[in-house]
Amino acid sequence: MSARRDSEERWIQRFARAATLIVVASFDAGAQKAPASLGGASSTPTITPPAITYTAVVASESVDRVAVVEFGPSGARVVRQHEVGVMLADPDGPHGVALEPSGQHYYVTTAHGTPYGVLWKFATATNAYVGQVMLGNFPATMQVTPDGSKVVVVNFNLHGDMVPSDVSIVRTDSLQEIARIPTCAMPHGSRINAAGTHHYSVCMMDEQLVEIDLDGLQVSRHFLLTKGMERGMAGPPPARGGDAHAGHDMSGHGMAQPAAGSTTCSPTWAQPSPDGRTVWVACNGTSDLVEIDVPSWTMRRRIPAGNGVYNLAVTRDGTMLVATNKRAQSVSLIDTRTGATLATLPTQRRVVHGAAITSDDRYAFVSVEGIGSEPGTVEIIDLRARTTVARVDVGQQAGGIDVLPTMPASTSAPRSR
Fold first, then answer.
1. N or C: which end of the chain has fewer CB within 10 A?
2. Full-prediction pTM beyond 0.90?
């Protein structure tokens, strides 16, 4: 997944840093037109700066850097950044980012390591190092349980043979790995339901959605996602072999264009609804979403999405999905009730990655990796106006992203000093 740099470049990046890139987004003095919703009347909402400051944390995999981005009344800017990792001659590859519900700490996975990857814990207000624990091969996406007691990390295992990998359960207080649960090949898209009882991930090479019982610490159910073969089953997914991975993007990047008429889902994300009754799965291969009814463990429908749909985020009221389209250089806003695409917003750079929504459902923060020497980008979308209102550059290959809980207007989110 990471762009490789030779030893000399790594030393230059670490000990002769360039000045922090700051891009402040300005707002037009007059009203701006938002994209019209498909099939509906156009609207011209007035876009105004936010009254409070929102804070996001984003990891840049190619340069071993985590940036803190603020977006407030004066625009968007990087307020601080720090490096994560220990290897000088090769990137450690910070991939995933997850904040505690309290916002006091955040976690970062470094995908590479000797021999395995690492989960790091930092204090949000200062970026101070708190601790770390070694996990499996290529730990990637993660999320903290709603009670803040555990962080659940998928071990993506991009290296070597396409063999079943696993999911790590780590206590947040002691940073002790209490379980490593086998699932299937290349688990990705680690998300937990609002009740904190079940975890959902997909396996990019095995066409599976996997449900883990977080009380029993075991796989409870799995769901086959191949188009025309959708079916929910009890227990863990079976081992697959032979040509099981035919038709998949074996690099794990989600950028390969599938053959015309392919039914291979190549799932990249699982997103439970706020009420826990639905899970949406992003099928990168077929460029659509599988909507699953959780109680009956059956498919309700397939929802058309953008080319190479990759990651998902849902508003806390459950009415809108934000979908990043990795091959289409765009972000889609999808109505969860009708399945209609409300807006498709182009991004400034290619390889759109992650999305996180502010806790008041006002804005979505989207990470864009960029290509080659391009910087990564965080794009900020006004979900009411359905338009992009700010952009800020960060380190190369921006990926994992999360947003601090919204603070009351009388206070502010943790800031740098």
1. C
2. no
